[in-house]
Design a protein that fits this description.
Length: 114
Amino acid sequence: MKMNFKNTTEFQKDFKKLLKKFRSLDEDLNEFKKVLNEEPLGIGKHFNVIKKTDSLYVVKARFFCKSLKKKDLRIIYAYSLGIDFIEIYFKGEKENEDYERIKEYLKITSPNEL
């Protein structure tokens, strides 16, 4: 089964900004999607469910980028019937995910489950 992937507007802005710095990002995201196609909640210690509702999981994952040597990015996505990418950021520039952005996303997609 092929997973349906979507990007939030904020994610697209994050991605575009990071793509200027890290040229392999497009290719890396395609590889990441292949993993999510097989295991939507990820495998191993690099994936962490940070919010769970009746019908949706919000997952924070370590995102490996070929352009970065030993450092990596973080990606936040929601998994339900498909996968919605919410945020991507460089760990060296930002400590944690944007909780407000996740709340906004949940408000729009699952208003009855907050």
